[in-house]
Structures are given as structure tokens and as C-alpha cells.
Specification:
about 75% helix; about 100 residues
């Protein structure tokens, strides 16, 4: 096995890969995944917004949750009746917060 590691350089490559978690809070990440699934299926967008907001409450520094909230807010009125909420404004605010947290 050591000779394969030496020949293939697997150990060296494995050391070079760094994974940075989007959040340390697993409950927030689970909510994020549920919200993202609903958003991608364009199903229950109101629930998707609620789940993203819950994830953000658990981890206000979770940039991906802010990004997801921005995305669902941006399309909300295209998929649902007007509810009197400024979803586009909320989308812009969430997007700006996501960029503040992680400009990449």
C-alpha cells in the first residue's frame, strides 16, 4: 500500500485538498438543504423562505443560507400571487448580506 501512495502521490494530493464547511451548525445546514430542495423544485416557496430564515437565525454568518434566501425571494412573486411583501427588496438585502459574509 505504501508503494502505491508513493507512486500515485495520493497522500500528497489528499493533504492539498481543503474543505471549508459552510456552517458549523448541522441543524442550520439541514434546514438549508430542505429549503434549497423546495426552491429548486419551485414547491412551497413560502416554506423555503421560512426554512432559510430559520437556518440564518441558527447561524447568522451562514453565507449560503443568505444566498439561498436571496434567490427564493427574487423569484417569489413570479411563482405566487402578490402578497404585499417587497420580495425583491428582501432579495437584494439578503444578497448583499451574503456578499458581505463571503464575496466568492
Amino acid at each position: 500500500m505504501d508503494s502505491l501512495v508513493d507512486k500515485l502521490g495520493v497522500e500528497k494530493v489528499a493533504r492539498m485538498v481543503t474543505v471549508v464547511p459552510a456552517t458549523e451548525n448541522l441543524d442550520a445546514y439541514q434546514l438549508y438543504l430542505q429549503a434549497r430542495d423546495l426552491f429548486q423544485r419551485r414547491d412551497r416557496l413560502d416554506k423555503s423562505i421560512e426554512l432559510y430564515e430559520q437556518a440564518i437565525k441558527m447561524d447568522p454568518g451562514f453565507a449560503r443560507a443568505w444566498e439561498g434566501l436571496a434567490a427564493v425571494e427574487a423569484i417569489y412573486t413570479d411563482w405566487n400571487d402578490e402578497d404585499g411583501i417587497d420580495h425583491l427588496g428582501k432579495a437584494i438585502d439578503a444578497a448583499n448580506r451574503a456578499i458581505e459574509l463571503d464575496s466568492t
